[in-house]
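Re-run with default settings, no changes from the original entry. Doing this only to confirm the output is reproducible before filing.
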Amino acid sequence: VMLPFPPLSFLLLACSSDSGTSRRAFLGTTCATIFIGPPTIAIAQQDDNNRDLYLARPMGIAKDGTNGDGGNGDSVSSTNPPLPSAPLEYLLPAARVGVYIYQTLALAEDLSLLLSNKNNNGEEGDTNKIKTSQQKKEATIEKLNNLLSSSTKPSFITPNDPTVTRGDPYTLPPLVGELSAAKRKQIERKQRSIEVGLTPQLFEVGELMGERRSWNRLVKAEKAREDASEVRRAMNIYTTNLNFNPNKYVYSGSKEEKSKMIREDKLPSTTTVIRSDLDARDLYRNAVQTSLEDSCAEFVYLEKVGFVVDDDEGGGGSSVDDLVGLLRDARVAIDKWFSFIPEEDIRAALEVVRREQAS
């Protein structure tokens, strides 16, 4: 589901949630233990930023195919509403991105530790230990090169994976689609007892035609960005195929706040809530893409300087500290992106990726 209007992110509120912390711990330990071995350094480290919640959150479609709302009107109150989701095959490319981030971060942290130990111990000591440490360092750099080099970087999308789906939101030919959309808007306004003048209605079709042109330009631009970044395309495969409840959303505010918003005609529509949700997902996708691109550039630089130990300030740090920081940023962003997805879907997707890597 992709809507053709500018995203509205004013509903996004950062709140605390215990479920977010447990989810991040699950992701970290699962990816680290299954794919690389026991967690190393900060591979399962938690932070204080928990899953983002919304004043108004969209709902998905229940497993039995029903809306799962059990009420009338746009907003509902539910203790466990179904999250928006897509079939498992649409999540696999993004799951591969997540596993890739955790694997690469674990290796970068191992290399940082090796370089820091060398910095602290100097070149003196047991010859065999020095040789073994050097061999571990070279092996770790080689593994990182396989993951971060543009020529050997793994692919996240297979020929059998589904593709990004972006249909024309009007579904009908030009002008006919706009007329149909304008009619739906009039019906919605009537149901909500919203009165508008005659002049705005006359210009409404023209505005909708302009929105369609803008939508087509946005789709073309996004397609070009997807062609340039497989990470972006992998994550878009999931978000563009999400199934949202088109009629209901969960309102998390108090009854008093909701009543006030209704009286002032400020209660958001389901469409607005869905746009806000998609906007937030895209923000975290962009953060993942940027952090990984910067990580690849940083690794190229480190190869050029020979991974020289940085001890100018006597802090015992290593030359890969910046690389580790960038990959940790990517981990935080992908965890945030995963927090929008049902946990059972994440578990199933990671299991599929585990079998892929084991074969």
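The longest strand covers residues 244-251. Confidence is low (pLDDT under 50) at residues 1-22, 32-53.
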